[in-house]
Amino acid sequence: MKRQIVLLRGINLGARNRIAMPELRNALADAGFEDPRTHQQSGNVVLAADVPPAELERECEQLIRKRFGLEIAVVARTRSELAAVVRRDPLGDVAADPKRYQVSFMRDKPDRSVVRTLQAAAVEPERLVVIGREAYAWHPTGVARSKLWAELAGRGLGVVATARNWNTVTKLLALADE
Asked: pTM higher than 0.85, yes or no?
């Protein structure tokens, strides 16, 4: 079985889409996934599975629907795919605060027109680099009023996506290596 990272979109934000991490770990273990581990309360899971990431996404979405009654989008990456995301780090030379450096993980590559829209929304001093199925975004003044963040977090991407800050990304890789 290979280590994979499962990212749930939009759980445990306020009172909506609440899932307790111990219950999620138990549900994943009951479904046959090995050694499920969670990081924080926002739907970050590292586990071992024999299925490809796309199948893992479908299986996790079905499991969450059946077990918790929630429609939650899931994005998965293998351990080696996540390691490549960390190795690339295209904004590491400017992203001084890892809490304001985000990676949006997309299920599929976005259309070129979407990438152009994202690039137009990045207002100095923000920075954006899209590589394949990841969008690296530096928000030095935060995301509260960021048009770029609004585009990344919205439905306009045309693909399922969820974002994590750089601290979480590197912690998930470390968990996958344990």
From this structure: yes
